[in-house]
Design a protein that fits this description.
Blueprint (H helix, E strand, L loop, with lengths): L8 E5 L7 H10 L3 E5 L5 H18 L4 E5 L14 E4 L4 E5 L9 E3 L3 H6 L5 E4 L4 E9 L2 E8 L1 E4 L4 E2 L12 H13 L3 E4 L5 H11 L4 E6 L2 H5 L1 H7 L2 E5 H7 L5 H15 L3 E4 L14 H13 L3 E4 L1 H4 L4 H16 L4 H5 L10 H16 L3 E5 L4 H8 L5 E6 L2 H6 L6 E5 L6 H14 L8 E7 L8 E8 L2
Parallel strand pairs: 1-2, 1-16, 2-3, 3-12, 5-6, 12-13, 13-14, 14-15, 15-16, 17-18, 17-20, 18-19
Antiparallel strand pairs: 4-10, 5-9, 7-8, 7-11, 8-9, 20-21
Helix pairs in contact: 1-12, 7-9, 10-12, 14-15
Length: 472
Amino acid sequence: MIRRNRNAKIIATLGPSSSDPQNLEALFRAGADVFRLNFSHGEHADHQQRLFNIRQLERQVNRPIAILLDLQGPKLRVGKLRDGEVELLPGKAFRLDLSEEPGDEHRAPLPHPEIFAALKPGMTILLDDGKLRLSVKDCGPDFAETEIMAGGPLRDRKGVNVPGAVLPISPLTPKDREDLEFGLDLGVDWVALSFVQRPEDIAEVRQIVDDRAAIMAKIEKPAAIDCLDALVELCDGVMVARGDLGVEMPPEEVPGLQKTIIQTCREAGTPVVVATQMLESMIDVPAPTRAEASDVATAVYDGADAVMLSAETAVGHYPVEAVTMMERIITSTEHAHYYRNILHAHPSAPDATAADAISAASAQVAHTLSAAAIVCYTMSGSTALRAARERPDASILVLTNKRDTAQRLALLWGAHCVHTADVSSTQEMAEKACRIAAQEGYAKAGDKLVVMAGVPFGTPGTTNLLRIATVG
């Protein structure tokens, strides 16, 4: 029996440091609930083997594990430079254009007409993760005349960001479409979509994915912030992708935006992940900085569903130690004296639906009775999502007859998922809830359970029943 003594979940990115069966099991036992396959790196055969190893581990430990496919998205880069590198001097003029001629200190190729189509005078262009900053003075469909505001060395193929523009470009490149179909055929649980700018981007991917996986929108561009409510409504989950967001937004604004995104998702009952540089120093050393520990704790206090490790577990020297440290920080934070006060500092009213009313009531009843757990019967996962939205005191035990639902909900705050057959009566519902709660270590004889379900049984989206059961 494996159960976590915490609510926030841990996502571990797989890579050369962590993909073999032994390391996978070590990461899982250290606390990883979700494994991320980063399709910006690696070949299809590598990811296929990783997924196979995860599913083998899942059967071995008899626990559902979520697999997140993270698509690369469009990569906007300058072209080649004459000597591989040039020095840009502040105050000097610098031209970007569609010419394929290698660049120099006066100009560089930018093979992206969609960028020129969106530019306007006064806009800022960032190069090399924001290290270099250009101000657009004049522009057309195939050029931009700029002034160098912040200079430094520029090398071949460095990235380009245009914070003030919504670019006329799909979030799916041909590579992404190929990767997406490959991952869906393998059976991934979540698809993380990069370069989201507008609601139509989610709709485009939904047409391909349908219900084969859940869709997670990566919030990494200012345009996505402007339509955040619409994006949250359309997707199944959200990732606060602070790396790119921190390039395109002033760094001092990112912490506030993180809280805004988390709160918006919590109000909607949409799972939200905080990602990028959480324990980055642990790539090379076996302990984090105090600032990194505080960063993780802040996400936990804010009520994020999950926190993510990237290079720490993919290529770092201490992948298991990074997950172990993340587990320790989360657990310590959730047991802190003020955790619940901070978590519920901004409560949101339930929607006027039966599901929300039952979910809000279940949290209140569980608190009043000091119930051992809230047990959710669900097919689609919606009952569990509404229960987790309340961030209840009691543990959330999710019982579902759909394996893919159990796997997707492995990412959900507080959810302990069990794949089991459906029930056919309220009596069987209560008895089974008590039996599994005891088996999974959530309850003992005499404990109270709050049970949520939908009648008629086996009908998705019908949460309308709340029952109190006592473990015999």
